[in-house]
């Protein structure tokens, strides 16, 4: 009787865990967020959009692969290129770091500034970093799904300067790093996001455009993939929309580092190695060229 009761308690416990993490509102936990500051992320932006609508210049932005120690903290430098095929890369755009869903910027001879905070909820406010910036108030918290099919936390603000919207991992969805100069007397030239990619895969393309103007990203041919149990206890069962088995499965850390890769599937099940507990992103590649992305939580 005691053994049976313990099994029932454990089953109820893991069912509750699965239910909590399956809810859309829980796609971003309090401590695990899709990264903004990583060299795997790349933004292609219109440096300015004068009439009749042609950009004055198109730049590629990403972060340096190497971190830099500044005042006891490690940062990655924001770099950009005017060459859509890659390099040379220019510096001087500042240094950024992340910690628990918050992104900070540091410049020489200036205090560190908070750029993004994805821990905010409805009713929270975000004061400006200087006297020219308006205070923003969170009016909506939800999710945004990009081309990889992974839900990301989104935050919508309102202020005397109008609305603005953040999306986890990409930042300001319309204008690159606009939060840094939001509602200032002089914002500088607008940096309208043309497209955004992670690890060479196109995840966002501005709705009114048909081209990203870069060979570094490629359109994804997506296929829905679901995995269970989630949280996982050492194995995964994959279910795809066409009931196909992938030819390759890869798991990535929240910083985009691949930590597991396999081509071995038995009855749609994959045995996982002993990885650290936490949230991982997964990509299942199929023989027809399609890919499916998912999130999974690995338990102890």
Oligomer: single chain
Indicate how many domains the architecture comprises: 2
pLDDT < 50 runs, ≥5 residues: 9-31, 214-220
What percentage of the residues does DSSP assign to strands (E)?
35-45%
Structural class: mainly beta
Shape: globular
- Please trace the helix and strand order, writing H or E for each element: HEEEEEEEEEEEEEEEEEEEE
Rg value: 21 Å
What share of residues is helical? under 10%
Arrangement of strands in the largest sheet: 6-5-4-3-2-1-12-13
Q: What is the CA-CA span between the terminal residues?
A: 26 Å
- How many helices? 1
Largest sheet: 8 strands, antiparallel
Number of strands: 20
Mean pLDDT: 77
Q: What can you see in these coordinates?
A:
This protein has 1 helix and 20 strands. The protein has about 300 residues and is mainly β. The protein folds into 2 domains: about 40-205, no CATH class; about 220-300, Sandwich (Immunoglobulin-like). A hairpin with a 2-residue loop joins strand 12 (about 190-200) and strand 13 (about 200-205). The longest helix has 21 residues, at about 1-20. It is globular.
Short account of what is shown:
The protein is mainly beta.
Any chance you could write out the topology, listing elements then pairs?
Blueprint: H1 2-22, E1 41-48, E2 57-70, E3 73-81, E4 95-99, E5 102-106, E6 113-117, E7 125-126, E8 136-145, E9 151-158, E10 164-167, E11 171-172, E12 192-198, E13 201-205, E14 225-228, E15 235-240, E16 248-252, E17 258-262, E18 269-271, E19 278-285, E20 291-298
Antiparallel strand pairs: 1-2, 1-12, 2-3, 3-4, 4-5, 5-6, 7-8, 8-9, 9-10, 10-11, 12-13, 14-15, 15-18, 16-17, 16-19, 19-20
